[in-house]
Amino acid sequence: MKRKPNLSVDDYWLRLLDLLKKRVRFKGEEGGFYIFEDGRISQFLIPKAEDRKVKVPFRFLTQSPKFLDEIFMASTEEFGYCDLSCSLRGDIDFEKLRSWTKTFGLVWLGETEETFSSILDVGGQILKLTAYPRREMLNLLGTLRRNSREPSGILRAIFQEESMAVISVRVPLCYRESCLKIAELQGLSLSDVQRNALKMCLERFYRREIKKLMKL
């Protein structure tokens, strides 16, 4: 959340609650949990100030992807992104999931008797997926951006085994003119130069995001 001079560290937790209450019907408090229409949340650690932002760690419990989306929208309202660690249990076909992540994941991180793990690009959201077949559980970890796919869409893509992420790019005029000059000098087509430049940008982006997730 955005850091504000008139707020104490504890006020940011209350601010987050207010943002969520505007989106989901609040039902009350019980045993340290704040109960909402489709789920509940509780404070996890003391909010931590970092430069222009304040991290507000909290835990949530829900069976509704819609509630997860509302948490995501409330958490990203002021700063545009949030860190997510989400564990899921249920009737999951882990063999299909393993095959899908090996085929379409950005990086296959390997497997043991207990687990397998991969880094994915799901609609522009870069996440680390770790599955625990014997425990019938998987975990998603990453930094989600507000202008990319919501959590419910991420889960839907994973369980419906989407074949690839679709990336839309708007090319600035100045960028196009630079590519045109390079194409003329090198005797290449404009589309080839733009494609190579975009590939380099994406590779740098993926390397940066993957490096972050490998540390977690």
How would you sum up this structure, described in words?
With 216 residues, this protein is α+β, with helices and mostly antiparallel strands. The protein has helices spanning 11-21, 65-75, 94-104, 151-159, 173-186, 190-214, and strands spanning 26-30, 33-36, 39-43, 48-50, 53-55, 58-62, 81-89, 107-111, 116-122, 125-132, 137-145. The protein is globular. A hairpin with a 4-residue loop joins strand 10 and strand 11 (137-145). Residues 164-171 have low confidence and may be disordered. The strands form 3 sheets. It has a 5-stranded antiparallel beta sheet, with helices on both faces. A 4-stranded antiparallel beta sheet has the order 1-2-3-6, covered by helices on one side. The longest helix is centred in the last third of the chain and has 25 residues, at 190-214. It folds into 3 domains: 1-79; 80-165, Double Stranded RNA Binding Domain, CATH 3.30.160; 169-216.
Number of domains: 3
Question: How many strand elements?
Answer: 11
Give the DSSP E fraction (strand runs of 2 or more residues).
25-35%
Instruction: Output mean pLDDT.
Output: 80
The assigned structural class equals alpha+beta
Radius of gyration: 21 Å
Which architecture of the largest domain would the CATH scheme give at its second level?
2-Layer Sandwich
Spatial ordering of strands, largest sheet: 7-11-10-9-8
